Amino acid sequence: MGEIITDRSQSILRVELNRPAKKNAMTSRMYVMLADIFNEAAKDDGTSVVLWHGAGDSFCAGNDIEDFLQNPPGPEESPQFKLENALADFDKPLIAAVQGAAIGGGTTMLTHCDFVYAGESAKFQMPFINLGLVPEFGSSLSIPARIGHLRAAELILLALPFDAKRAADLGLVTQVVPDQKLLATASETAKKLAAKPAGALRASKRLMKRPLLEQIKSAIKTENEEFSAQVRSEDAKEALRAFLEKRPPHFAGAIKSSAVA
Q1: 1-180+195-261 CATH fold
Q2: pLDDT digits (tens, 9 = 90+) for 26-36
Q3: Which residue in 16, 32, 70, 86 has the fewest CB atoms around it within 10 Å?
């Protein structure tokens, strides 16, 4: 079976990230495959709704670090950039069912979904800064716009992890449900949407996205340029090496933490 599995039931396209042993971490090839899937679904008159989830016990643990080190994104067209733009342009309802780890891109990709159902096991985090990197998928704009600067700073600058309940309180997920009911709940919403007039559904989503779309695409482009620069920095190289070596990173010039009485 492939790293991404698709299956159609009437007008509902199910997309499953399928690297459960790696918690569905994304490779460069998977970014391109997923971008192609969304672009084709957008053009396909037989597809009215997309349901997106991960195999195994996780949604997506972000980038596959080993693949990422071999294929760091550049300032121009990159696999990540292709998916970011495919999601920004996607004008059909997109539903995510999230269980377990949703880390890095596994969190920021969700900002492009219209419905996000989180299982009680879902754990979110945007640890970009811990890796010497910056946010992606337009989240430097969309997250503060949704939850305010102060709460966004906790998630982006401190890179604090948060659970499904916190995500719901922040308005980042639609509903928290028991893990065993997760796919059934998301599927029920997909069926309800698929029963509605497809043209009006797409037009309504375009109208909802229109006020921020150009800003989101501009943020994606700017983030991509900054990400490309930061990933080649000494801090990022040290952070990524430390991650693979399972040790704390040692950043040049960083203030060492100490206990406060």
Answers
A1: 2-enoyl-CoA Hydratase; Chain A, domain 1 (3.90.226)
A2: 999 999 999 99
A3: 70
